[in-house]
Write a structure and sequence with these properties.
The protein has five helices and 14 strands. The chain is of the alpha+beta class and about 290 residues long. Strands 1-2-5-9-8-7-6 form a seven-stranded mixed β-sheet, with helices on both faces. A five-stranded antiparallel β-sheet has the order 13-12-11-10-14. The chain is globular, with a radius of gyration of 19 Å.
C-alpha cells in the first residue's frame, strides 16, 4: 500500500510500512531457485483464490502477497482477517510433478515445518504445529494460534496459502485464543525479513521432499513434523466429516501424514481430515 492509499485504509498505521517489492525480488528470485515470480497487491479477497483462478498460466514458484486480505480462508471455510500490513498473507503455487499424487497430502504439513523453521531463525520465536495446519506460539503461559495454512489443488499443482499474525496488538486480535509474533516476544517483526526466512525455508524443505519422491520418512519430513507437533501426546477431540466425533490420545503421525489416535482397548485409528481440539485431559477443558 502506498502512502497515498493510507487515508483510504481503515487500518492505517505508520508503524507498519509496506513491503519493498524490488528488495524481495532481488533476495528471493534466482535463476536456479524455486521462486520464479513475486507480486504484492495492496488488498485482495484471498491470495489462494487469486492464484487458483490463474493456475493454468502459472509457473511453479509463483508467490502472491497481499498487504491486506479481506476474505482470507482457512479450513472449513473459516475467515481470516487482520489489519493491513499487520501480518504476512501470501500464497505460493507448486507443481510437484513426478511425486505421486497420493503423497501431495504432505504439502501442508511440509509447509508448517518450513514456516516453523524459518520463524525460529528470522524471528527467534518457537512455533509449534497443531495438526493439520495451525501455527501456535506461546504468550505468557498460554498456547495460542498465530497462523494457519491452507492447501488446495489447482490445475496441475497445489496452491498453498499462509496467514501469519506479525504485529497485531492484544486489542486487535480476532479472538482470545489468537496471538501474534510480537506478543510472543519476536526479536524481529520486520515482514520482509520474515517473508524471506519463511520462503527460503520452504524452498529447502520442498527440495528435500521432491528429491525423495515425496517420501516423508526418507526426506526427514515425517520426523521433523512429529518433533514440532504440539498435538502429539495430547488427548484430543477430532470432529470428523459426517458429524462424527472421536476422542483419544494423539500418538503418531503415520506415513500418509494422518494423525493416529489411541482410542482405548489397544485400538488405534488414523484421522485424515477433521477439526482437532486439544484437551487438558480425557474429560478436561480446552487448551
Amino acid at each position: 500500500m502506498t502512502p497515498s492509499d493510507a487515508s483510504h485504509s481503515r487500518w492505517s498505521d505508520l508503524d507498519r510500512p509496506p513491503l519493498n517489492v524490488p528488495a524481495l525480488r532481488r533476495g528471493l528470485l534466482r535463476p536456479d531457485g524455486l521462486w520464479s515470480a513475486l507480486d504484492v497487491v495492496d488488498a485482495t479477497g484471498s491470495t489462494n483464490s487469486d492464484l487458483a483462478a490463474r493456475a493454468a498460466g502459472l509457473t511453479e514458484g509463483t508467490v502472491l502477497v497481499a498487504e491486506e486480505q479481506t476474505a482470507g480462508r482457512g479450513r472449513l471455510d473459516r475467515t481470516w482477517t487482520a489489519p493491513a500490513r499487520s501480518g504476512l498473507f501470501f500464497s505460493v503455487y507448486l507443481t510437484p510433478g513426478a511425486v505421486p499424487v497420493q503423497r501431495w497430502g504432505w504439502l501442508p504439513l511440509l509447509t508448517g515445518v518450513a514456516v516453523a523453521a524459518g520463524l525460529a531463525r528470522s524471528a527467534g520465536v518457537d512455533t509449534a504445529l497443531k495438526w493439520p495446519n495451525d501455527l501456535l506460539v506461546t504468550v505468557g503461559t498460554e498456547e495460542r494460534k498465530a497462523g494457519g495454512i491452507l492447501a488446495e489443488r489447482a490445475g496441475d499443482g497445489v496452491v498453498i496459502g499462509i496467514g501469519l499474525n506479525v504485529s497485531l496488538r492484544e486489542d486487535e486480535l480476532p479472538a482470545p485464543t489468537a496471538a501474534s509474533l510480537a506478543l510472543a516476544g519476536a526479536v524481529s517483526t520486520d515482514r520482509e525479513t520474515l517473508l524471506r526466512g519463511v520462503l527460503r525455508s520452504l524452498e529447502q524443505w520442498y527440495g528435500k521432499w521432491r528429491a525423495a519422491d515425496g517420501d516423508a520418512a526418507a526426506s526427514g519430513l515425517q520426523e521433523a513434523y512429529a518433533a514440532g507437533c504440539a498435538t502429539l501426546g495430547r488427548t484430543v477431540r477430532a470432529q470428523l466429516p459426517g458429524d462424527r466425533t472421536l476422542t483419544g490420545e494423539a500418538v503418531a503421525i503415520d506415513g500418509d501424514g494422518r494423525l493416529v489416535l489411541s482410542v482405548g482397548d489397544g485400538l488405534q485409528e488414523p484421522v485424515s481430515a477433521g477439526d482437532i481440539v486439544h484437551l487438558r485431559g480425557a474429560g478436561g477443558g480446552l487448551t
